[in-house]
Specification:
InterPro entries: Ribosomal_uL3, Ribosomal_uL3_bac/org-type, Transl_B-barrel_sf. With 114 residues, the protein is mainly beta. The chain has two domains: 1-22 and 74-114, Elongation Factor Tu (Ef-tu), domain 3, CATH 2.40.30; 23-71, Irregular (Ribosomal protein L3, domain 3), CATH 4.10.960. It has one helix and six strands, in the order E-E-H-E-E-E-E. The chain is elongated, with a radius of gyration of 21 Å.
């Protein structure tokens, strides 16, 4: 079956799903927006470190503790994007706002006007 953009019209609201850009192994500052440690007051090597990751009790690291690790390359859905233009001749759909992934990435577009 041929996939066409003529099912959409300007002003429609759509939900667009895709995979975000992969960032590789990212630190806590980039991945979670941590502020890091101070530059002065006796600190040497703790500018972009996490800091404490738990209390002395329960004597373990809890699940879902935010730390450094793999960032990006995950499926996300951007909802309520508005269709700006539809060109059936070139089969191009333009929307207001950002879409996940790099240029030329595959996207899943759902019409949410129904």
């Amino acid at each position: 079956a041929k996939i066409c953009v003529d099912i959409f019209k300007p002003g429609d609201r759509v939900a667009i799903s895709g995979f975000t850009k992969g960032r590789g192994f990212a630190g806590a500052v980039k991945r979670h927006g941590f502020h890091g440690g101070p530059k002065t007051h006796g600190q040497k090597h703790s500018l972009r470190r996490v800091g404490s990751i738990g209390a002395s009790y329960p004597q373990r690291v809890l699940k879902n503790t935010r730390m450094a690790g793999h960032m990006g390359n995950e499926r996300v859905t951007i909802r309520n994007l508005i269709v700006a233009q539809v060109n059936p001749e070139t089969n191009i759909l333009a929307v207001y706002g950002a879409t996940p992934g790099y240029n030329g990435a595959w996207l899943e577009i759902k019409n949410t006007n129904v």
